[in-house]
Amino acid sequence: MTIISSRRTLLRATGGLAGILATGRAPAFAQAAPKKMQIAHVNPVPESGAIGMDWYAKALTERTNGEFDVTFHGGTLLTKEIDITNAVKSGNLAMGTPAGAAGTLFPEMGVFLVGYLISNYQQAYTILNGKVGNDLDKLFQDKYGVKVLYYFDYGFRHVWNGKHPINVPRDMRGLKIRTQPSKVFADTVNSLGAVAVPMGWAEVITAAQQGVIDGADLPVVNMVPLKAYEVSKYYSLTGHNYGSTMVVMNLGVWNGLTPQQQKLFLETGREAQGVARKVTESVDTLASAKEQLESKGMIVNQPDLAPFIDVAKQKLWPMYEKNYGGLWEQIVATKA
Going from the N-terminus, what domains does the chain have, and what CATH number goes with each? Predict the structure, then answer.
């Protein structure tokens, strides 16, 4: 009796399987819901990094054919770089970016911020998309528990202030310039003769309105989205810092992906990198800065950078060259 019942059960099961194969429909228990993933950033679109991450989230959702539902949160899920980074490290968030605070939260990234060490975009791209970027990725996995999905940047930082245009290094003397709360940012500004005032971005506009600072520095791509033009008059393309950063994933989440999924995340990340870089680089010109800012009452100028570079080499570079050793040598040796 047991054998007959078992045979009937098997026939019903195989009959059901035949029906599934014929119709192409998977059984209900096999239709897994998409795995939800979040990417967090302190800024929303149209900031350049946000544009890249928003594109990345949508592309991953589409390309994984329902395996993942990836959502980008700009300035809504978490609003501070350190909170986002700590959430990724702890596994409470799948992906995020330290944004402009990369040099603070991942000190090894500080080398890219040393004034005028990175001289142009192509040099930076060659470095970060090559051995240096790969070595840093391995280090970050071992040291911080995160996997680099792709590097991107905010371009070169330029000085804005309410006092006067910056044409030569001596024009920086005495200006109280807000910097990111990281030593390398402050050292760069101080070496050029200004007085660095480290503070988080949330305080900057109010500090400028109250005269606590005379100005700050931002790449062209962020001047309008962050409304710096409301508290400044002059924007000088000093190009004194290159703002490299990255999008990272919790290492446990990364290791939970299949090799095929990992490949897709990295390949799509390289495309997202291109999206963000294109937005940033395309506006980092004198013509673009004038177009965006002069209609808002600002005066834009582009000084000769040679004297600024000379000052940095004399006063700033010796402070950092020994700290970064082989990494410094690789960067200096890399040409555009």
Answer: 34-333 (3.40.190.170)
Are 249 and 94 in contact by the 8 Å Cβ rule? The answer is yes
Q: Does 335 score more than 80 pLDDT?
A: no
Alpha helices in the chain (DSSP H): 2-23, 48-63, 81-90, 102-105, 121-128, 131-144, 183-191, 204-209, 220-223, 251-255, 259-283, 286-293, 306-311, 317-333
- Amino acid of residue 317: W
224: which 2 tokens? 């309008």
175-224 pLDDT per residue, tens: 999 998 888 899 999 999 999 999 988 899 999 999 999 999 999 988 99
Listed in sequence order, the residues at least 6 apart from 287 whose beta carbon sits closer than 8 Å to its beta carbon are none
Q: What is the pTM of this model?
A: 0.82
Reply yes or no on whether the pLDDT at 13 is more than 50.
no
- Peptide bond between residue 46 and the one before it cis (omega within 30 degrees of 0): yes
Residues in the chain: 336
Buried (b) or exposed (e) across 158-192, using 16+ Cβ within 10 A?
bbbbeeebbeebebbeebbbbbbbbbbbbbbbbbb
Q: Are 93 and 38 in contact (CB under 8 A)?
A: yes
| Phi, psi (rounded to 5 degrees) for 26 | -85, 150
Question: What is the pLDDT confidence band of residue 336, given thresholds at 50, 70 and 90?
Answer: low
Q: Distance (Å, rounded) from C-alpha 41 to C-alpha 222?
A: 14
Which positions ≥6 away from 270 have C-beta within 8 Å?
150
How far is it, in rounded angstroms, from Cα 289 to Cα 236? 10
pLDDT computed for residue 180 by the predictor = 85
DSSP 8-state secondary structure symbol assigned to residue 224: T
Within a 13 Å sphere around the CA of 237, how many CA atoms are in the beta-carbon half? 17
CA gap 27, 25 in Å, rounded = 7
Distance CA 185, CA 3 (A): 79
Cβ of 48: how many Cβ atoms within 10 Å?
A: 28
